[in-house]
Write a structure and sequence with these properties.
By secondary structure, the protein is α+β, with helices and mostly antiparallel strands. Helix content is 26%, strand content 40%. It has a single domain, classed as GAF domain (Beta-Lactamase), CATH 3.30.450. The model has no long low-confidence stretch (mean pLDDT 93).
Amino acid sequence: MDKKLKEICNVTSEVVAGADKVSLWTFQDNYSKIVSIVNYQRINKYGDTVEIKLEDFGTYFDAIISSEVTRASDAREHPQTACAKDVYFKPDNVYSLLDFILHHNFKPIGIICCESVGKIY
């Protein structure tokens, strides 16, 4: 399964314009956090697991769960994603993101996240 998930991220980075990083996340602990299961960077590198908690990124969680898609050309200033500016975007040089909720039996189970690095896309 891990190989298949990595391939999904790899292919997504090829077909989504500006997707320098693609990651898959799962909701855990009754939607109080998301944990990455694959972190792919276009330079063919896989990163470490990351955990993001509702208590630290409440605006983002509310937005992604209610709208199911978050598109932020300038993620550092976008009202739904600016909460991650100093902790996540700046350290990883992320400028833009496109997130989609993944469902199973009509229930949100995770997120696929596409991010541009080094420039606004």
